[in-house]
User: Fold Dedicator of cytokinesis 6 from Mustela putorius furo.
Amino acid sequence: SFSGFRPATLTVTNFFKQEAERLSDEDLFKFLADMRRPSSLLRRLRPVTAQLKIDISPAPENPHFCLSPELLHVKPYPDPRGRPTKEILEFPAREVYAPHTSYRNLLYVYPHCLNFSSRQGSVRNLTVRVQYMAGEDPSQALPVIFGKSSCSEFAREAFTPVVYHN
Assistant:
């Protein structure tokens, strides 16, 4: 029962840049364990000026303006202009098989080939821009992509990084 749960705020101000080829995860964990002690080892880490603030509080028993993981309205949805609450889709257990009875709001992109002949040096930073077009003109991108929580409700395009290995 969460009846005794009181709201809490978590603030994190210590962020460090980690370059995977220079610092292993094990080394990073050692540095973070010794963070309170003055040490010359911490000077090897480059701090990033940032602040992350998370407010945690109990959700109402029946929240309004809910959207399913498929972005369908969950009733009651009294006002279509209300700020939505998005439900999160769980990863299924490996041995649980269930049929999909509705469309999922997922898009998997698998490029058949990548042409890097016009690029000089190594190509590591790749991104994919996703747009739903009403025509061939670049200005005809439709605002049908569900935006991030810090943006408008629907966006005309979305960007995602690509993990690519030869």
